[in-house]
Amino acid sequence: MNSPCAHPIHRWDQGHVGVGAVPAADVASRTIISMTTNPMFDPTAATTFLTTHYGARASTVAEIGRGEWAIAYAFTLEGAACVARFAAQSDDFEKDRIAAAHVAPALPIPRILEIGEAPGGFFAISERAYGEHLDALDEAGMRAALPSLFAAYDAARLADLSATTGYGGFDATGNAPYATWPDALLTMVGDGPASRIRGWRERLAAYPSAQAAFDEASTTLRDLVAVCPADRHLVHSDPFNRNILIAGDKVTAMLDWGCGLYGDFLYDLAHYTFSTCWFPAFRNIDFATEAERHYNTIGLTVPNLRDRLRCYEIHISLDALAYNAYCQRPPEMLDLLARRTLEAARG
After folding, report:
1. What is the DSSP string of 96-150?
2. What is the C-alpha separation between 60 and 57, in angstroms, rounded?
3. Which domains occur in the chain, in start order?
4. Residue environment code for 222-235, b if the CB has 16+ CB neighbours within 10 A, otherwise e
């Protein structure tokens, strides 16, 4: 797959895992040099750009979030609440526009209003959605939101992809590069010449436990892919990086489709089953069993569900090892991820 995605473990210094905090300065010194440090995208520069680009139609610019690939600002455009995002590359914005074509009552995706060049990179303007980040829910909140989450993923599963081709991460054209789903799973993110994390293999070698876990899990993955179906569905593949908004018990937005791909719809569920250890509030929720109950309710037969989930958990862990090694995270972080990787690989 071709879109490197940050994993919840990258936020461990904020208390998501239980092995102790790493000083923020240490994390910052090791982290990937990202566009979010670009002064062209600081609040003053963003305000200047928006008021120059839109004139008096734009006002009340305020930063509302930043990640490793983009910074987001809320602002008002002709009286409407909007979000402006700035990034070094435009690919993820184009993927958001492609995903928004599949919006449905159960699958709310903010409409992209404009994509263009900005000083130092690109910008995208979208409608603003409101809600609490999925990551921040407590156990009761997550349980209450599950029916709406499952309905959103059902809508993605039913999206019409007939105008597109391929498996794996889709690009700005809406097409994906691999002929089969196993091909996509067995080609590691970051290996392409245009990858944002090119060189991760060399950096992974600096983490012996992570390298060993990667090698063992890769072998297991190759043995498991035969159980994966040839089905081709729209997959979001990034639920825990403040990319899903919840209001009450309803999904109000599924944001940031930069990791979006075409493949087995259970890949989205695997993010939940794999990641509960990073979120203490969710550790008592058996997401696989809850999903099985939902599928039974709607009359959907899902063969080999547990084996498929295990396969995708392994792939997610390999992706996370590659990404975090490239970012040169603290060794303790990679050790923790290596342990979780081996848990998935060994069943």
Report:
1. HHHHHTT-BTTB--PPEEEEEEETTEEEEEEE----EEGGG--HHHHHHHHHHHH
2. 10
3. 8-32+131-346 (3.90.1200.10), 35-127 (3.30.200.20)
4. eebbeebeeebbbb
Residue 317 contacts residue 344 (beta carbons within 8 Å): yes
**DSSP label of 191:** -
Chain centre distance of CA 17: 19
Tens of pLDDT, residue by residue over 301-346, are: 999 999 999 999 999 999 999 999 999 999 999 999 999 999 999 9
- Which amino acid, residue 255? L
Q: Where are the alpha helices (DSSP H) in the chain?
A: 24-30, 43-54, 91-100, 139-157, 181-186, 200-204, 208-224, 266-275, 287-298, 305-326, 331-346
User: 């409101």: which residue's tokens?
Assistant: 130
What are the phi and psi torsion angles at 273 (to 5°)? -70, -30
Q: Is residue 115 classed exposed, middle or buried when 0-12, 13-18 and 19+ CB atoms within 10 A define those classes?
A: middle
Distance CA(141)–CA(23), nearest Å, equals 30
Q: Check pLDDT > 70 for residue 6.
A: no
Residue carrying structure tokens 């245009």: 194
**Which has the closest alpha carbon to 273: 245, 303, 307?**
307
167: its two tokens = 């498996």
133-143: per-residue pLDDT in tens? 999 999 999 99
Residue with tokens 């402006």: 84
For residues 7 and 315, give the distance between their C-alpha atoms in angstroms, rounded to a whole number: 12
